[in-house]
């Protein structure tokens, strides 16, 4: 092989894919296989809907709406809360939110889940294709490319990636990985152009820019700078950490000015980005509850360390054997180790011992293979650091999405081990067969897991087998249960597992309220408010319960407290209007419902109540006018058409009333009351034949309908 050919094989990035397809057919074939595997495993996600966190981050997030100023994405966190607010999770991901807005713009302003999922799938394919070049560089530019191809294939089909690909919120991880991989490949190209100063400086600057973009897609992106540093030292400059451990090391060994300058640039950039992130957060850290990450709240430093090591071991196990996959690992899913004689401490000891032995052997060995393994470990560990609890408390126990990027380092370790075993002829057939079987099993597992993520009910059902002690699993099963009895049981299980679960108390109280158990509902809501005084939904629901108990003054106070804690709360204004209506305070009811429709122009119940109340107090013209305004926001509401028709009929505007009645019937032809009221209109209009026809049609739909029978008898 010539020097020029060696250089081409060593360059991992920057060569456009379309050039590679012509210059290196094996690369083109590899990319085709990777794309096919990615589509096979995850294509089902395109038919799925918005599930779990998608509802808060996408569906109900005002920041992605085209009617909202784009500048809000710079002020708010990923969930739409102001980044400096005490309740913010401090997850600052403006580029991800921007991608959602672009998605919405491409769909003409309509939230189409299939389009969001399709973009996720395309991004995943791009990331998987880039992983081929990234691992080629990480493994030292293998001439055969076998290690990089095996790594990329395992990375593509790994089931732990489902949580990053299928839910729309996983886009943060996909964009982060895309920018990370691009930054790394650009840095590799910068190292190839050290003799051309201007190109070298430009590529280093581009690396910093891409790393910044990665951080603004997800916080984990900042770690790519540490990975570039390790790559420069271990692979590009072929140095070993063992040299750093020697106190007697002479300065001449590290007189490579270029390496020192690059390391300083990477370190200073990391510090600058960290300070920028800290400034954006307003110099404060997020506040999490104990249930989010109980291990981080332990007083004993020893027990905290033991629990952290146990969680690390579980993360490695998920990468090695992704059988236990769950949408949420908090609230008792991983019980705390509170005593050193707990049997799980043995797992911690084994994990820690194996890790130490591995590091000792790699640090002792200065061979090329040892440096490659160190590089793979560095990629895995550095990219996992933001989720490790070592530098700051995180709001989760285990999050499968956070294993997306680290899994590439893990897959590279497996691929290096496979190549080592394949070097022995006796093992070649066995290793190849096992690898093929592993890829097949991972493909099937990824496909089945994608199907589970297609709808919330299946997702929550799959979690109960993995985390039966997770209160949040029971809570979400209760929320999606079509059966009230089943929902009650799951809410009670959630409270049994976590007696301070305020959201479960709130939802259980709602069911009990509907069942007429008002005293128990009131008790639960008051308990929830003791735990969280700013719980706006609980204040509103307590107001509803008190209103049902005719405690109007206390109910009104509860509604206003809810509005105080959540200014934009259309449902609360709607319920406040209902309270005023019951007290015959029509003007206040009108103002409250008007506020509800102002905050949410598609608030169907508020519009309907406005029309009905105005009609009932004799303001028929105003009722029909408000109804026509409502139709500009809800043109397909049969109820609004029907209520407008009733108001118009009372002012003897029979022709217009008939038109709205017919529109209501066209939108909902199975509702007999529409035919009865249209019959009454014809009756007053003295179109008796048409009136009879409408009454008969109503009786056809509901034979025992008294009003239709009575009106027909009167007509006869």
Write up what this structure looks like.
The protein is mostly helical and 716 residues long. Helix content is 69%, strand content 0%. The protein contains 35 helices and no strands. The chain has helices at residues 3-10, 17-23, 25-42, 53-59, 72-75, 94-106, 113-138, 146-157, 162-165, 171-192, 197-217, 224-236, 241-245, 257-280, 301-320, 344-364, 368-384, 406-422, 425-452, 456-466, 471-480, 484-497, 502-514, 518-531, 536-548, 552-565, 570-582, 586-599, 604-616, 620-631, 638-650, 654-667, 672-684, 688-701, 706-715. The radius of gyration is 32 Å and the shape is elongated. The model is unreliable at 1-25 and 247-252 (pLDDT under 50).
Q: Which terms summarize this structure?
A:
single chain; 716 residues; mainly alpha; 69% helix; elongated
Largest sheet: none
Number of DSSP-assigned strands: 0
- Morphology call: elongated
Overall average pLDDT: 88
Alpha plus pi helix count: 35
What is the element layout, followed by pairings?
Layout: H1 3-10, H2 17-23, H3 25-42, H4 53-59, H5 72-75, H6 94-106, H7 113-138, H8 146-157, H9 162-165, H10 171-192, H11 197-217, H12 224-236, H13 241-245, H14 257-280, H15 301-320, H16 344-364, H17 368-384, H18 406-422, H19 425-452, H20 456-466, H21 471-480, H22 484-497, H23 502-514, H24 518-531, H25 536-548, H26 552-565, H27 570-582, H28 586-599, H29 604-616, H30 620-631, H31 638-650, H32 654-667, H33 672-684, H34 688-701, H35 706-715
